[in-house]
Amino acid sequence: MVSRTIPVDPFDLIIIGGTGDLARRKILPALFRRFVAGQMGKGSQVIGAARTEMDTPAYRQMVSDAIAEFGGPEKKDKANLKKFLATVCYITLDARGTAGWEELGETVHSENIRAFYFSVGPGLFGDLAKRLHKYGMSDDRCRIVVEKPFGHDLASARELNAVLAKHFDESQIYRIDHYLGKETVQNLMAVRFGNMLFEPLWNSQYVDHIQITVSESVGVGGRGGYYDKSGAMRDMMQNHLMQLFCLIAMEPPAKFDPDSVRDEKLKVIRALDPLAPENIVRGQYEATETKPSYRKQVGNRDSTTESFVALKANISNWRWAGTPFYLRTGKRLRERASEIAVVFKDAPHSIFGEDAGRHRNILTIKLQPNEGIVLGVTIKEPGPGGMRLIDVPLDMTFAEALGPEQAGFPDAYERLIMDVIRGNQTLFMRGDEVEAAWAWTDPIIAAFGEQDPPLPYATGSSGPDEALALIHRDGRAWREIKA
Ligand code: BG6
After folding, report:
1. Which of 49, 147, 157, 409 could serve as 183's disulfide partner, Cβ 3.0–4.6 Å?
2. CA distance 229 to 236
3. How many Å separate Cα 238 from the centre of its chain?
4. Residue 73 phi/psi, 5° resolution?
């Protein structure tokens, strides 16, 4: 099976914050890989812009180094690297002043799609939007891309939406949540809405509960300053996990188009019950012999910020009333393993007697690593013995099912940046969606102040024991965190 690459229209991608970490690790390598794949249309250019004084040759060197470090297998393609670098230039730009803006206006090709990637703190969004407008670059060929965190609560998200809305239409604003660009996340929609098999069972009559786990083995690393002000609730739950949650719980949209999909996601968030304090557990990782504790790593010995959160959410609508959703995410857990598990109910009556044991169908959507979808099916254990049942996986692990050419999935950023150029907002968050997500999480976060501090948990564990108790008390268990 060979994947098709359809070149996009020629574009200018302007990375504001072009010397930053995100540009080096994600945006530039993603663009290079799309270039190698032949998707970057002829006449396209990549413009790095930042406050740092630098000329184009020096920037090209920086881009080349970033690709050498983060470029994946394509980085060995020196011929394409040379051609790609020829499309790259650099402009020193002052987001709050006048320096560089005229030069930027002269450098962009007026006939190209123009995507401005705001890879800078949200404090600069207003200044940038104003200047793009003032220097005549905000017309309808222009799109802006903004990263999470989109605000730190409802009020700040509203403010950001208002600042951007002054100069841009919602159809020009692309709020990135890179989880939506992950291959399996899109496949989740294909499996749900492309097959007759699952949708009739996708409700509280057949589904016992749903678990979403995004587990990371790394700690906060060098991002302590940012992370200690955010915590797992703001950094992961309010966006990545809630987006997964919406896709799994939403009603079938009438079409796979931006507003149909986003309307349905929004309805899920709005149907969420407020979270009771007994339905959330927070944790903070402890030190090991070789690795520092969370508090040490963020340089705040009294920190009460959580590096782990587990919660039980309920949706009050016809489809899901009575089916709980258990969500958890954390750093320094036992493995990097993320999945969504749809746990179906027991068969109403077991004709095989007690010895056959309890068997349940579980549909597991594995996000990373080893992306794929596995359906656990109960069959007879082979052999002449009695009627014993076992569970076997119907494995749709993509790398095996689709063959080697498909195994190297594009990074989420490759997909998402190309969608920006194509003008497809389906996998981006709409302003009202982000606000609704904050409206649900704000009271939860506000209540942290009155609650006990996060519970300590060991590095390499599954989080604090109380998180296990959160689900055990309902007679259920978390699935093992396993890659
Ligand atoms: C980011 C968070 O949005 O997602 C990080 O800020 C987290 O804290 C990262 O590590 C996880 O992304 P991925 O794609 O590695 O699962």
Report:
1. 409
2. 13
3. 11
4. -60, -30
Point out the ligand 1 atom lying closest to the alpha carbon of residue 412: 14
- What pLDDT is attached to residue 22? 94
Contact 90, 56 (CB under 8 A): yes
Task: Give residue 105 CA to ligand 1 midpoint distance, Å.
Answer: 34
What distance in angstroms lies between residue 238's CA and the mean position of ligand 1's atoms? 13
CB atoms within 10 A of CB 113: 20
- Choosing from 240, 349, 359, 472, which is the catalytic residue? 240
pLDDT for 404 equals: 44
**Which regions of the chain are under pLDDT 50?**
2, 404-407
Q: Who lines ligand 1 at CB under 6 A?
A: 178, 216, 235
Atom 6, ligand 1: residue with shortest CA distance: 235
Break the chain into its structural domains and give their ranges: 11-147, 180-472
The CA 336 to ligand 1 mean position distance, Å, reads 11
Residue 235 tokens read as 């950094």
Ligand 1 atom with the smallest distance to the CA of 148 is: 3
Q: Which fold has domain 11-147?
A: Rossmann fold (3.40.50)
Q: Do 180-472 and 11-147 have the same topology in CATH? A: no
Residue nearest atom 2 of ligand 1, based on CA coordinates: 235
Distance CA(174)–CA(115), nearest Å, equals 10
Q: Which of 175, 177, 178, 309 to mutate to test the pocket of ligand 1 (most atoms within 8 A of CB)?
A: 178
> What is the 450 CA–ligand 1 centroid distance (Å)?
28
Q: Which fold has domain 180-472?
A: Dihydrodipicolinate Reductase; domain 2 (3.30.360)
Q: Angle, to 10 degrees, between the axis of helix 28-36 and the axis of helix 56-70?
A: 80
List, in order, residues 6 or more apart from 258 with CB less than 8 Å away: 424, 425, 426, 428, 430
Euclidean distance between CA atoms 278 and 238, whole angstroms: 19
Task: Please state the pTM of the whole predicted model.
Answer: 0.94
**240 is an active site residue:** yes
